[in-house]
C-alpha cells in the first residue's frame, strides 16, 4: 500500500510540473524571465505548487515535517546552506523561502518536467558559469539556497569549497541549517519504490548565522574561503557524528 501511495505521489509531481509548464514555457519563449517581476511570479508559482505537493505527501502518509520554520529564512543577500540527505530537500526550501534563488544540478537542463520552471524562475545550474551567476544573484540582493555537498549525502557529509567561495565573494550572511530524516528515503542510488513502510520524519533546524562582512575581514579572500570551508565541515561532522 505504501508503494502505491509513493507511486501516486511521483505521478502527481509530474502532473504538477506539466501544468506549470503551460505557464513557464510561454515565459521562456518570450524571454520574459529577464524581468524581476516575472521571475518572482514564476518563483511564486513554484512555491504554491510545492506547498500543495508537500501537503499531499502528508495526507498520503509519506512524510511529516516541521518545514514551516523555513519561512523565517527570507533574508536578502544571504546564502542558505543545508546538508542534502534526500531528493525532496530542495522542494521543502523552495516551498517556503520567498523569492529565493537556488543552485540546481546541471543535468536538470535535460528534464522536460523541471527545466521550464528552473529557466523561468532564474534558478542557477551548476555548470561552468555557476560561480559567476551565483555571486551576481547574491550581489543583486537575492537569497541563495545551496546544498554544498553538490549531491545527496551517501555516507559522510562533505561540503565543497566552491559554495563558500560564492559566499565570501557575494553574500553578507551565511545561514546554516540542518536536516535530519528518519528513516532515510529517496537517497542517492535508491529506487523510488524502495520506500520505508513507516512515515518518514523530516526535522529542519536553523542553526546559526555568520556575518561574512566580519568573518576574518583582515585576511585575504582565499584564506577566508579555506577557513570557512573548514569550519562548516567541522560543524556538520560534529552535528552528525
UniProtKB/TrEMBL annotation:
Molecular function per GO: 1-acylglycerol-3-phosphate O-acyltransferase activity
Location of the Phospholipid/glycerol acyltransferase domain: 78-189
UniProt xrefs under InterPro entries: Plipid/glycerol_acylTrfase
Keywords: Acyltransferase, Membrane, Transferase, Transmembrane, Transmembrane helix
UniProt xrefs under CDD domains: LPLAT_AGPAT-like
Pfam family, one: Acyltransferase
Oxidoreductase keyword on record: no
Pathway: Lipid metabolism
Keyword Transferase: yes
BP terms from Gene Ontology: phosphatidic acid biosynthetic process
Transmembrane annotation, as ranges: 6-32
Full protein name: 1-acyl-sn-glycerol-3-phosphate acyltransferase
Amino acid at each position: 500500500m505504501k508503494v502505491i501511495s509513493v507511486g501516486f505521489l511521483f505521478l502527481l509531481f509530474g502532473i504538477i510540473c506539466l501544468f506549470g509548464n503551460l505557464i513557464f514555457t510561454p515565459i521562456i519563449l518570450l524571454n520574459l524571465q529577464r524581468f524581476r517581476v516575472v521571475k518572482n511570479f514564476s518563483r511564486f508559482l513554484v512555491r504554491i505548487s510545492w506547498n500543495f505537493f508537500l501537503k499531499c505527501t502528508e495526507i498520503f502518509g509519506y512524510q511529516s515535517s516541521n518545514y514551516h520554520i523555513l519561512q523565517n529564512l527570507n533574508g536578502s543577500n544571504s546564502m542558505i546552506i543545508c546538508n542534502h540527505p534526500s531528493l525532496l530537500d530542495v522542494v521543502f526550501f523552495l516551498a517556503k523561502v520567498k523569492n529565493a534563488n537556488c543552485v540546481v544540478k546541471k543535468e536538470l537542463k535535460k528534464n522536460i518536467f523541471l527545466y521550464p520552471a528552473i529557466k523561468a524562475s532564474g534558478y542557477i545550474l551548476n555548470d561552468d558559469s555557476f560561480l559567476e551567476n551565483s555571486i551576481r544573484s547574491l550581489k543583486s540582493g537575492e537569497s541563495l539556497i545551496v546544498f554544498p555537498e553538490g549531491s545527496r549525502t551517501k555516507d559522510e557529509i562533505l561540503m565543497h569549497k566552491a559554495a563558500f567561495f560564492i559566499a565570501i565573494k557575494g553574500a553578507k550572511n551565511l545561514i546554516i541549517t540542518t536536516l535530519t530524516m528518519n528513516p532515510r528515503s529517496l537517497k542517492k542510488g535508491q529506487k523510488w519504490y524502495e520506500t520505508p513502510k513507516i512515515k518518514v520524519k523530516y526535522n529542519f533546524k536553523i542553526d546559526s548565522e555568520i556575518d561574512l562582512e566580519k568573518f576574518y575581514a583582515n585576511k585575504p579572500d582565499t584564506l577566508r574561503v579555506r577557513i570557512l570551508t573548514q569550519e562548516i565541515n567541522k560543524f556538520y561532522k560534529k552535528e552528525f557524528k
